[in-house]
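Weekly puzzle thread! Below is a chain. First person to post its structure in token form gets bragging rights.
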Amino acid sequence: MNTALRVTAFTAGLAAAFGLALGVGHATGTGPSPKPATTGHAGHTESSGAGSAAEHLPGGLQISERGYTLSLDSPYVTAGSPTDLRFRILGTDGKPVTAYQQQHEKELHLIVAPRDLSTFQHLHPALAADGTWSAPTAVPAAGEYRVFADFTPAGAAEGLTLGADLHAAGDLHPAPLPQTGRTVTVDGYIVTLTGDLTPGRSSRLTLSVSKDGKPVTDLQPYLGAYGHLVALRAGDLAYLHVHPDTATPGPDIAFTTTAPSTGSYRLFLDFQHGDTVHTAAFTVTTGESADHQH
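Winning reply:
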């Protein structure tokens, strides 16, 4: 698997949403899986009620929302060194939340991505009885990272995505946003993107997987679906919730999402084949400059 896009054990697995891969490898299961779901993560609306200041904000921009807070044990790590990323979700009473609803076979999806969106990790941390989550990981390079926790507390009507900054010490080499076309290659697979992100309007994205010149029609379920897609906005790393629409094992994996604004976005697709999770990354642009990508 491409080293920059591998995840070793988000976990217990990251992503999210968006699972999202990263310089570390994915933990995968080889046992039988249930029929994939065609619904997205819970909490795909960020509203906390009419008139809320956060009503129209994408997920992940806030460390605290609707009374819940993402609390990292430490926001500092060293690039390239294995670390145990530990955190808690504090509830409306200020105490750690210890009960969650499962979404896509996990109670919480953790995504780690740098500000330049060059890499992506979709982790599934383990929950201790005291409400502390932990996930072994390593960030591949120095810089500023964003940690996203995608979850639904037990009894909550909808889920939410909270975000916090993570600082990685080391020799920093800033890089521009990675540029891709509509086709990328990862681990010998060719993934082609059709469809466009449309600001302020729901749009459909389809990603088609092939290998050795043939369509892949036997994708394996991963976390209850044939594909997981995380979209992050360049600049502020706004986290877009993406709804999977696919119920067949390839070659097409379809999603529905809404871009909150014009601009550039990174799309990270996780799919499983041959008992291995692969991650394909795309850079797409909405608005007037979008035509230059075709």
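Puzzle host: Confirmed. Bonus trivia for everyone else. The chain is about 0% helix and 40% strand.
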